[in-house]
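Support request, please re-run this one:
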Amino acid sequence: MTTFKELGLSEPVLAALREVGYETPSAIQEQAIPPLLGGRDVIGQAQTGTGKTAAFGLPMMQYIDPDTDVVQALVLTPTRELCIQVTQALRAYGSTRAVDVVAVFGGAPIRNQEAQLRGGGHVVVGTVGRVLDLVTRGSLLLHDCRYVVLDEADEMLDLGFLEDVEKILSTTPSGRQTALFSATMPPPIRALADRYLYEPLIVEIASATKTIDTVEQFQLPVETREKAAKLVEVLRAEQPDQAIVFVRTKIRCDQLFRTLRDKGMNVRALHGDLTQGQRDGVMLAFKAGRVPVLVATDVAARGLDISTVTHVINFDVPTSPDTYVHRVGRTGRVGRSGRAITFVEDRQKRELEAIERHIGMPIAAWSAGASAKPAPVTERPRRHSKPHVRHAADEPRARLVASGGRAAGIEVADLVAAITHATSLDGEAVSDVTMLERFALLSVPADEADRVIERASGVEVAGHTLALERAGA
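Re-run finished. Output below.
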């Protein structure tokens, strides 16, 4: 078995890895780290959860000169959530070398980010729109940036960011080293790579579908009135290092959080009614390992990539098999084992049967100390359709991004209905809806955009809690 040391990483970087608990490299890390350390451009085709942040981040930490106070590396991300996640990971990887990592993204004061950049910053992680804004203002100088990463490039394409990505790349040195990571490789992404990468090594991790073959999966029949007590019993029996307990609604989330807290457990809640600052605080505490149990709605199933999660408990059966796969995929990360336990009320047996058909296997019964053979759970391929809702209005429009998408079981009509109900807008005011795999794009009247973001964020749609922001932020 290959070790991180055998990949060529230096002792300070290896020390940081030991601190975060990484033991052996994943497939993407094993194949991408050596060529990146050797200065090669790399295209990595791999799903989320395969360890790609470390694949590009560890060579980056080894490359950076902490004594040179200029921006030496740039990571572009399509969303704020991914930007925060990558930043936290890179700070951990660079902790032993005093590498300064600055995050820049929309929805936060740009002046604060400009001040951070003036104060230093060896690595900048940012959303495309905010990075371009800072470059245009002259606040972010990239002429010394010789390591550039495009993370989740296919999502940048879906969001319409490729032109802005090219503008940013044009401000970096022509001799830079470039890495591009993407779950899929549609023609526009391939063309971008052809234009901006030099003789790249292509690293493709098998399977175009997401598998979770390191997760033991169980079901537990429960009575409605006994669910909370049964959860306490399961948590005490399983003794998880870290567990995410998924519930369908934010009301249930708060109720269960209080129940567990009153039982003396160290637990936090994560749902759409929290402010962005509160959500960031909860996620930081959980990712840092200070909180062993997180009670969450499905807002946490998107973008949470924490290798130390040992257990997922479905307190409520997911409303769709795809949601089950995404929830269970929060454990068993980067080659580690995990356990998933689903509570099943009598009225939810049909939903459980649909999940079993979807994953192609029965789910074993849980009991204290129970074991199940690790079994693969595979997402079925989907058509990349883009349904649209037309409108007749000709007023200025604003483009918004909504969390969730086809993978969360959300339909266009559900999304439009939820937004119009929350905002009292006419149905035709929400238009040009594009439903993608993990998020949706939509247009609303420009003068209503802020109100829509405020009022519709936190609304439940098909068991998923919406979070909205302006596209390109």
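The domain at 215-365 is CATH 3.40.50.300 (Rossmann fold). The chain has three domains: 5-14+22-204, 215-365, 397-470.
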